[in-house]
Design a protein that fits this description.
Number of strands: 25
Radius of gyration: 23 Å
Mean pLDDT: 84
CATH architecture of one domain: 3-Layer(bba) Sandwich
Largest sheet: 8 strands, mixed
CATH class of one domain: Alpha Beta
Strand content: 25-35%
Bound molecules: flavin-adenine dinucleotide
Structural class: alpha+beta
Length: 495
Amino acid sequence: MSERSGPTQTALPPVGIAALQVAAAEPAPRVALKVTALIGLASRPGVRYIGSRLVPDVPGGTRLPKPHVLIAGGGIGGLVTALTLHQIGVPFTVLESVAELRPLGVGINLQPNAVRELYDLQIGAAELDRVGIPAREWALVGRNGNDIYAEVRGLEAGYRWPQYAVHRGRFHMLLVDKLIERAGPEVIRLGSRVTGYRRQQDGSVTATVQRADGSGESLRADILVAADGIHSAIRAQMHPDQAPIHWGGAIMWRGTTLARPIRTGSSFVGLGTHRQRMVIYPISPPDPRTGLAMINWIAEITVDNSEGWRNSGWFRPAQVVDFIHHFADWTYDWLDVPDLLRRADVVYENPMIDRDPVPTWRDGNVLLLGDAAHAMYPTGSNGASQAIVDARELGAMLVRHGVGEAALEAFDAKLCGPISEVILRNRGAGPFGLLNLVDARCGGTFERIDDVVPQAERIEFMARYKAAAGFAMERLNAAGPTIAPGARVGEAVDA
Ligand SMILES: Cc1cc2nc3c(=O)[nH]c(=O)nc-3n(C[C@H](O)[C@H](O)[C@H](O)COP(=O)(O)OP(=O)(O)OC[C@H]3O[C@@H](n4cnc5c(N)ncnc54)[C@H](O)[C@@H]3O)c2cc1C
């Protein structure tokens, strides 16, 4: 068979199927966290069972039925890409390195522009309410407990879509459940680490895959989407001279504690100075019996970074005793920080790291997406949101240009420049930059914020950030859907 003609596809009953249990490590009330993924395995020499089709091996790797998109990474970006491809009718396979998907992480924010895309994927309020809570306020408070800035968020602010604060792991499992329910378990191959790629002369691309059992394989498709996170192997190959991970000296300890929510009951609060702060927000509604909600917190300090990040890992379990002394006297009549930290359920240490922007996210038919493209400081709460928006923009480009390089080129031209600017803006503290301003003008101690940074200046500062990050309200509310309802690849509908 020539490389161009594509494989003969013969539907056979699945042979050699292994059932992988994807079980939750943590108890997660009200969310179905048990998923069974059926992964196709080799059934005959020279022939590999993939999904529901049998295809022969060819030089350059096993050619997946045309058209086909390979997605490296089954995190938030990879799964929303998969759900989008399913919606617009493009066959795909997700290759995920871990052998078991678990509800990992703590709180993340889904900005209204990302929630809109989830709604367009028929993942609505009922589902999101099971993994988080609509955010109602965003506030900055000085170390002395005085307000610096507060604004209403979500529907109450006038957005057509809410902002959600969710448990990352539970949201991730929701996406897994939705994908398996809609596209079947065979679209996710666990224990499959993509180690690199080769672009082929016929316009296809081969991904080299290392399996959890030590074996390897090569899979060939039309497009490879790298959604493999901040340590992306594909990005490392695409940009071999990229700078090492960038660390500006901030260390975050992240955790969750069952506690009474403060302010509106669903407020995001940044408290302190830019060198030492707490970020606190609930990711569940309060239990009606106890009044306690799951509160996500980030305790952050800035240290000398001249010797670089020396601890191993970037999201490792930690102990409260390692850092509670930095916040020992942070007690107010509305909040007791040491108590919140002491009663934590889980704690992770996490350096605030990102990557320098690169000039392009594309190499022919290989595309970087999500953190692989634009890992950024979490100061703007938009890393996960941007990964979701990326996935939808890619879907829109595929509808417009078909499954090929033109779609990736259009995606890169639209997003790489502007989102790279957001990376740099977040390095300058993102919306927390207001704390820097207060610090520069009065050392962080003030009685009346208007005497330090006038209200108009504060509002202008926040408006600039939201416009850059794509969730300025008027613009978002007025924009048409990223992917028109019912649009399918090959049946383009004007968005
Ligand atoms: C376990 C985990 C916990 C996290 N917890 C938090 C949190 O609490 N708060 C927060 O703000 N952010 C957290 N993040 C980061 C956050 O999810 C991302 O910044 C954001 O959602 C963008 O998503 P992404 O899909 O681009 O990357 P990620 O969410 O990082 O997903 C990347 C996926 O690719 C897989 N992968 C990596 N390398 C390969 C490879 N070579 N081949 C195949 N698959 C590969 C990874 O296992 C992962 O599933 C966490 C990420 C992970 C992986």
